From TrEMBL:
Residues 92-177 form the GerMN domain. Residues 1-21 form the signal peptide. InterPro entries: GerMN (IPR019606). The keyword Signal applies. The keyword Zinc-finger does not apply. It comes from the Bacteria. This is Sporulation and spore germination. It comes from Tepidimicrobium xylanilyticum. SMART domains: Germane. Keywords: Signal.
Length: 188
């Protein structure tokens, strides 16, 4: 009887192992492992990272000396040339992010609040819509004035932007930080 049980178990094991072998016949038309490989032309290059472009732009930053002294004979904003890379986000949005990052020159400053969050920048019919989150969007009238001027002057340098409309949480708002009316688009 022991011999019969041992032979029976051995037969089941052999049968089970043979069932595990891969069959050459397709079992399911939707089986991904059986699909034909994607053909790529020999001269076609597939890059794992998105395309990025590079452009020299003019960014406007606050003159530190003007801020410190209030001397009206000084320029309020001073241009700074910079080469920026963009691709996964628009050039216009990258410009605002670079303004938020700050200048390379020690004589210049950005007055855009460091805790403000940029939600996006869209351009339609020559108007750049700069959308900020209301969270962290506060400051004095001078800071609000410089923030608006920095962004407007920098974006209008591009040929695709004629005016800038500020949005707060995706909506038109009365003011950006409580001092200057932003219901209409700004032009330089």
């Amino acid at each position: 009887m022991k011999r019969f049980v041992a032979i029976f178990l051995l037969a089941i094991m052999v049968f089970s192992l043979s069932a595990c072998n891969k069959s050459n016949a397709p079992s399911n038309e939707n089986d991904i492992s059986k699909e034909e490989p994607i053909e790529v032309e020999e001269d076609e290059i597939i890059e794992p990272t998105p395309n990025t472009d590079e452009m020299e732009v003019t960014l406007y930053f606050a003159n530190k000396e003007y801020i410190e002294t209030g001397d009206e004979s000084l320029e309020k904003l001073i241009p700074e040339k910079r080469v920026i890379q963009y691709g996964d986000i628009s050039l216009e949005e990258m410009i605002v992010k670079e303004l938020m990052k700050g200048p390379e020159s020690e004589e210049l400053s950005t007055v855009i609040p460091s805790n403000v969050k940029l939600l996006g920048v869209e351009v339609a019919d020559g108007t750049a819509f700069v959308n900020f989150s209301s969270e962290g969007l506060y400051g004095g009238s001078l800071q609000e004035d410089f923030t608006i001027d920095q962004i407007v002057n920098s974006l209008v340098e591009l040929g695709s932007v004629d005016r800038v409309q500020f949005l707060v949480d995706g909506q038109k708002a009365e003011t950006l930080m409580g001092h200057i009316e932003i219901t209409e688009p700004f032009e330089p």
